[in-house]
Every structure is written in C-alpha cells, then in structure tokens.
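@channel sequence for tomorrow's demo:
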Amino acid sequence: MSTKFTVRKATPVMFVDAVEPAVAFWQGLGFEKTVEVPHGDAIGFAILIQGGVELMFQSRGSIGLDVPALAAEPSRVALYVEVSDLDEATGRVQGAPIVFERRRTFYGAEELGVRDPAGNVVTLAQVPAEQGNG
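structure tokens (generated this afternoon):
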C-alpha cells in the first residue's frame, strides 16, 4: 500500500430530530455555524466549526431524502472522512459492510459508505483538490 496515503480530515455527522437545538447547544460552546441548508421550514443540515474542530448535524427528515436507508438508523455518529485516495481507502476497509456504494456527489466528491465494527457509518470521501483541505 502507498506510503503517500493520508487521512485529511474526519468530521462527525450526527443525525438529530431537529438541527436547531444542536446548533444552539454548540454555539453556546463557542462554535460558529458556517453552513446551513434548509429542509422545509427548518434547518436540514448545518456545519459548525471552532478552531480545527468541525461538526455536522443533519435532520432525520433531511437524511431520509439524501440516503433513505439511514433515516431509521438508531442514534450513532456517522463520520465523514476525507482521504487523499479513495481507491486506497477502499482497499484498507475491504470486508467492512457497505452502507452505500461508491458515488459522485453533486459537489464533486467521490464517496463510499461503510460501517465500522461498532456499527457507525463512515463515509470515505475524496474531494477534488481545489475543494479539499490538503
């Protein structure tokens, strides 16, 4: 395996009944909301950042439209892990249960969803260089 492979970032994506209370809680701890995506009359998705820490929250209603199979998931943390090489990352998690097959997102990332041994969803993502953090 390549010695050039790196994990660039891992961001928890937490599924919640309502995003607004989570945003308020974390803003109370000094996080800044940098992204907000509406879902009807509510927030469907938000990103909060403080220093080098990033948190994502997505409402169950919103995730039900994005990845329906995840809408009924029990409350767990889903990690979005940005990697330098998705092919290599895929090899490194070979044998892990697949949550969703490799796909290209509307924002240009290549993604694959797997479960870790604890049952958490881990989305491995290779983001185009002009969008990535490294």
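heads up for whoever presents: The longest strand covers residues 7-16.
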